């Protein structure tokens, strides 16, 4: 499992367009928006047939995005129990 949380900066008048674009990106969900500050909180989760990194890139390069900050990332890859 891979999960990332992003803060997307954009002009508030473009939020609706961005949310529409983000619905088409696998594993992406918009959780909050602050029109006053021009921020959106977005999570990206991996799934079968796509990687988190591809979805993060798609979020970052979407039309009307001014900047994206990676706020949090989690992976459970490599956490298998090891024998002592």
TrEMBL record:
It is found in: Cytoplasm. Coiled coil: none annotated. InterPro entries: Chaperone_NapD_NO3_reduct. HAMAP family: NapD (MF_02200). Belongs to the NapD family. PANTHER family: CHAPERONE NAPD. This is Chaperone NapD. It comes from Pseudothauera nasutitermitis.
């Amino acid at each position: 499992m891979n999960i990332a949380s992003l803060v997307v900066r954009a002009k508030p008048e473009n939020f609706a367009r961005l949310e529409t674009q983000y619905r088409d990106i696998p594993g992406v969900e918009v959780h909050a928006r602050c029109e006053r500050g021009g921020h959106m909180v977005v999570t990206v989760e991996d799934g079968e047939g796509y990687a988190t990194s591809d979805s993060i890139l798609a979020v970052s390069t979407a039309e009307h995005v001014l900047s994206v900050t990676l706020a949090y990332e989690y992976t459970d890859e490599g956490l298998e129990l090891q024998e002592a």
